[in-house]
Amino acid sequence: MFQHYVETKEKYPHAVLLYRVGDFFECYFQDAVTLAQELELFLTSKPVGEVGRVAMSGVPHHAWERHATLLVEKGYAVVICDQVEDAAEAAGRLVRREITRILTPGTLLEEGMLKSGRNNYLAAVVIAGEHWGLAYADISTGEFLTTQSSNSEHLTQELMRLQPAEVLIPTNAPDLGGLLRPGEKSEHLPECLPPAFCYALRSQIPFSAGEARARLLQKFKVRSLEGMGCEHLPLAVRAAGGLLQYLEETQKHNSVPLQLLRTYTITDFLIVDHQTRRNLEITQTVRDGSFHGSLLWALDRTSTAMGSRALRRWLLQPLLDIKGIRARQDTIQELVENTPLRQDLRQLLRQIYDLERLTGRAGSGTANARDLVALADSLAKLPELALLVAETRSPFLKALQKVPPVLEELAQKISAHVVETPPVHIKEGGLIRPGVNKHLDERRVLVEEDQKWIANLEVEERSRTGIQTLKVGFNKTFGYYISISRAKADQVPSNYIRKQTLTNEERYITPELKEREARILTARDDLNQMEYEIFVALREEVGQQAEVIRNLSRAVAAADVLCGLAELAVHQGYCCPEMVEGREIYVVDGRHPVVEQSLPAGFFVPNSTQLGLGGQGTGDREQGNKGNVNENFSPSLTLPLSHSPTPDLIILTGPNASGKSCYLRQVGLIQLMAQIGSFVPASFARLGICDRIFTRVGAVDDLATGQSTFMVEMNETANILNHATSRSLVLLDEIGRGTATFDGLSIAWAVAEYLATEIQARTIFATHYHELNELASLLENVANYQVTVKELPEQIIFLHQVQPGGADKSYGIEAGRLAGLPKVVIQRAKQVMGQIEKHSKIAIGLREGLQDKEE
Ligand SMILES: Nc1ncnc2c1ncn2[C@@H]1O[C@H](COP(=O)(O)OP(=O)(O)OP(=O)(O)O)[C@@H](O)[C@H]1O
């Protein structure tokens, strides 16, 4: 056995090998140490012939999934080598063992190992000079996409968006097959790849253009890649081909059903970089990384796991295309207007299980009978769904109006074949209904007769022997036996053969009983095998329909997302934003979607926003028409808060905790929500499409990379200034606080000026540097706003209202006074303040400087 173990382990040197021995999965040598350390299990040792004692640890066989999941979550690959025959069958020779499963972080399928609300992506990256290709797949749902680009920053962003569980990279590293766990460094890892992921080092061969292309053509049975859109994208093809080969290698007997490969272009979507996604708390909060308190948490009213995953995908990849956005809006609108439809739809959707993943498990041969029943029940709901939306007119609901007949037939077939509540195990019978298969039914009758005979045996033997305590029992080692208490042992008939003696009882068999037993056991094995075969055939049939089922599942998921957003819009009083071609961001009474839900109803103070109304950005700069008020702007909706008719940049001041950050994020979130097609928390909104949203929010030391607060801040700011366009939305919260006041102020000033004049990006700049308010006197497209407070002698009341004008008072000293700083300190602080203010007329200074130059 150990020789077999070593041979197997040699094939998978980089994985933890769980090797089945009786009731345990065992690990030896270094694997034993890894298993014990990572899962806090007991490390022991075992004698192995001449080798002596070797390290050993193990887990009970029924608990392997749980333990393997934990190892995979920690970034290990796990190989399962199971016994594929009964020890009894082996009758003395070595039990046959085979690799039944290879688990890596990106290739999981088992229900317990996956999070229902999010995709589990496997990605593959091919880099050639400046260019790169990226393919990714979720084998549990069948998604398979590829893309190619030449900007390495985009590659990082894309990986951060996907958060792949595992990334494959072709390399000529000597330790091919190795898996770098998150954070593990390697010289073979290209620099542009974020270290936060698991990287599998792969051979270059399957990633070569010829092999990759051939593999794709063969997998999808096509003659050209034209239909997939990547015929002329060699790096995208190479990445996708290498990914497929990895799946073939790890999935062993199971061939996972993948959807036809699709090609996409990164710049077709709103680019939200990782920092911004973090700062806007799109899928998790900054403070503790929890889902509760994130935008996704606030928006998710979906009824299915598929819908929940789709909403997450949408939020991470908002659209640029107005048509696409309007199609989603129209569907939400229809569902907002039709409350009974919305409610019935949600009710029905709740009864639909995770069709995408159930289909994946069926196709890969890992589904059990309960999975098929769940799948059939869900498919059976689709005609009801179609009927419900029969009269609808919006695109996403219309997609549900037709159910392919083949799916209805499939649902009926599964229900007709499989019992209503089947057992978990599929090799132990009890799965298939009577009437499905004649031979199965005949066998069942025979087994039942024999079972009846045995059931009667107890009654008959009791009366024949006169022993009332006589019992017929069964155990795995001896099979059926007749049990008699030892006191009555002298009364047993002569045809009884004693088999076993226990403290209080004797156990006997009879030749006739053994004959029946043999018949029953073989017939039962045959029966189980027949049931299993019928089940597997049915499962394969489902697998063959994977594409059809998944197409419809995607439509269900989209409808679910939109129905949830409609529900949210009604309950939270959202409006449908008018999406326009220009650059304006015009929001009346906007609210922060998450903070609003965390406060008691009516407590959130709405605030309006007006940005970028003056022209078309960069283009205008050249045409020199900066400053024109948009002609479409409706005066009746003009907000009271703007003194500059055309602000591109807002300097936002206000005391600590007055609501600056909240306002800033609110604007970003409203824009992002609008670009996924959602309604937004405002009473009116007219929004131009943004190409990117940038944020810079309160610096935190990046201890992991050893960068100081200030350097992190400067890197992020540089990134913004280098990439923002006049179509971008830039949200800056405190710049320059990480260094000396005057350095900081000067940088903040220059950054704001550059954004307003050179880039003309729509920007909100929240700051404690009141000096920045002077910018508005120099630049036409800069306006000052402040978050107001009401001052009482002993306290400051936060009004959370954003109003025109700059805060002219430093509330920092006031806050210090309220906090109890000694009077003399406060007094002195005020004097210093006065002195500083005297010398800091920046605008005047700059103007004079400019005049000097001209002269
Ligand atoms: N419009 C609003 N309506 C009601 N409450 C609000 C509003 N805006 C902010 N708040 C509340 O005020 C708190 C402080 O807001 P925020 O963090 O935005 O302040 P800030 O001005 O950025 O403070 P600092 O300058 O210290 O960073 C928030 O936690 C929120 O609960």
What would you say this structure looks like, in words?
- One of its GO terms (molecular function) is mismatched DNA binding.
- The protein is an alpha/beta fold and 855 residues long.
- The protein has 28 helices and 28 strands.
- The strands form five sheets. Strands 11-12-10-7-8-9-13 form a seven-stranded mixed β-sheet, with helices on both faces. A seven-stranded mixed β-sheet has the order 14-24-25-26-22-27-28, sandwiched between helices.
- Helix 24 (741-759) links the parallel strand 25 (729-733) and strand 26 (762-766).
- The radius of gyration is 35 Å and the shape is elongated.
- The N and C termini lie far apart (94 Å).
- Residues 595, 603-605, 607, 654, 656-662, 800 line the site of adenosine-5'-triphosphate (ATP).
Properties at a glance:
single chain; alpha/beta; Nucleotidyltransferase, domain 5; 5 domains; seven-stranded mixed β-sheet; 28 strands; binds adenosine-5'-triphosphate
